[in-house]
Specification:
5 helices; about 30% helix; Aminopeptidase; 7 strands; alpha+beta
């Protein structure tokens, strides 16, 4: 696939990049509806680093521009244990890179990774129902809406893609 982005797993040294994302009100507007403070971000980042050891093909990845080596955001293909049959697909892009097709390329590449990752049978994504651009990206990649649910007081739509 010809793409100008690549994925690299977050490592313990990447907290500042993660914090740049989750502390940005624009990025988090349709995720938590608020910027995440440092203490909370550190706890979440520890979980990410631990989860990145579950499987070499799944986890939380930095989205890197292959031309400039610049950090663009986070891509997630997350499972809870090595035997999981489904994974959560997600992404967060820094605002200066919005509207450039990065989220679309990220979703497409994550789906390709999941298809090569043979035990996975299903992907799901959770979005804010008002996040029309993300919904469009997911639907264009074959995801279908399954349900609307409350997530800690915030509205959420769950979309699924069967990959086998």
């Amino acid at each position: 696939m010809d793409s100008n982005i690549k994925f690299e797993k977050f490592t313990a040294n990447d907290f500042s990049l993660y914090f740049e994302l989750v502390n940005d009100e624009k990025v988090m507007a349709m995720i938590t509806e608020r910027a995440i403070e440092k203490n909370e971000a550190e706890v979440e980042f520890e979980k990410i680093i631990k989860n990145n050891n579950v499987d070499k093909n799944c986890g939380n990845f930095k989205i890197i521009d292959t031309k400039t080596n610049r950090f663009l955001g986070l891509a997630k293909l997350q499972i809870q244990n090595e035997y999981d049959k489904e994974a959560e697909l997600g992404y967060m892009i820094l605002p200066p890179h919005w509207g450039k097709g990065i989220a679309s390329k990220t979703a497409t590449q994550l789906i390709a990774v999941a298809k090569k990752h043979t035990q996975l049978q299903k992907l799901f994504a959770i979005i804010d129902p008002k996040n029309i651009p993300s919904r469009k990206i997911l639907v264009n990649n074959g995801f279908i809406s399954k349900e609307f649910r409350d997530f800690d007081g915030l509205p959420g739509e769950i979309l699924e893609l069967t990959i086998i």
